[in-house]
Amino acid sequence: MKELQDRIIKDGRVLPGNIVKVDGFMNHNVDIALQRRIAKEFKAHFEGREITKIMTVEASGIPLATITADEFGVPLLFAKKAKSDNIEGGLVKSEIFSYTYKKKVTLMVSAEWLSPDDKVLVVDDFMATGQALNGVCDIIGQVGAELVGVCIAIEKGFQGGGDKLREKGIDVCSLAIIEKAEPGCIEFRE
Amino acid sequence: MKELQDRIIKDGRVLPGNIVKVDGFMNHNVDIALQRRIAKEFKAHFEGREITKIMTVEASGIPLATITADEFGVPLLFAKKAKSDNIEGGLVKSEIFSYTYKKKVTLMVSAEWLSPDDKVLVVDDFMATGQALNGVCDIIGQVGAELVGVCIAIEKGFQGGGDKLREKGIDVCSLAIIEKAEPGCIEFRE
Question: B73 and chain A: CB distance < 8 Å anywhere?
Fold first, then answer.
């Protein structure tokens, strides 16, 4: 998606450790109009496929997943990272290592809101090693629901998470795959 | 908002400790079409007021805040609860006690994305004691931006958070104020 790549070049920054910072429009201060255009690309990619639910992981993927759910006209279910009073009993869990927070995190979904009949599209703003998305896909598999595909706005191609999903035959729609991220230099996969 | 009150009666549940569980349509599995109708009520309440930014706190308020930002045509800025690689330098912070997680939490916003010129509407799915919202209002005040008002889908009136904001002269738009929450019995403020 040319607009997204141009925006990453214009407003993104590379921090030490190949961290690509896009918090001015993607995952802290969120340009909602851009999220809508990204969601329309996801819709076009999965045109004609039956989707009953959008899933993501809290917290930064929620704005894009919300707009995508709005675009598809289906509910959004987001996996939680900590047990709260608002979630109880019948949990489906998957343990992951969070690249962002540098620690083990348990993703949790209440079994009540995901059924074997669901046809799920997983959405996230960012994918690096793909740990969080693997956790969500694992939860979908545990329940016996169908994983229709994975939608990513920005994929760090050089960290391999997306390609591992593709090797498993999963339909991954990534709109900007970054192959190189160094201060002052961001390059995308053709 | 009659539709929201009816939905709370129909699908909400009261757990021990006056916890009102609405995770089937508000803050885990999210009915996006309902969030849109809630956002339209917020829009009607603040009609004619200049709004430049919607703010909320991660994570459960993000879907409603996203749809509200979409409805107002402005960006969304969400306060983070933990330091991540994606947020650095120039932070504005406020320490709160989270009723949901039963612990102290520091809310953080990158100063870069909030300016004294901003006219901010704060949105959340739920308000009990109002700690999280007070933290966001505190951050807005620290930056010198204008707090236009506070939009809440479900307020637990008996926990006093909303009334404290009203006493300060803040325009609080709550669509369902629960005055009594006991198993099998939920009552709303007239």
Answer: yes
- Name residues whose C-beta falls within 8 Å of residue A105's C-beta, 6 or more positions apart in sequence: A81, A95, A96, A97, A98
A41-73 CB burial, b ≥16 within 10 A, e <16: bbbebbeeeebbbbbbbbbbbbbbbbbbbbbbe
User: Which residue type, as a one-letter code, is found at position A187?
Assistant: E
**What token pair was written down for A136?**
């969500």
Q: How far is A29 from chain B (nearest CA, A)?
A: 4
- Beta carbons of B30 and A69 less than 8 Å apart: yes
ipTM of the shown complex: 0.95
pLDDT in tens, B82-132: 765 555 668 999 999 877 677 888 999 999 999 999 999 999 999 999 999
What DSSP designation does A80 have? B
Facing A100 at nearest CB: one of B23, B35, B84 = B84
Q: Cβ separation of B66 and A112 shorter than 8 Å?
A: no
> How far is residue B72's CA from residue B52's CA, in Å, rounded to a whole number?
9
Closest B-chain CA to A126: B86
Domains of chain A: 2-188 (3.40.50.2020)
Tens of pLDDT along A72-82? Answer: 999 999 999 87
Q: Residue A86 and residue B63: Cβ atoms within 8 Å?
A: no
Interchain contact A51–B (C-beta under 8 A): no
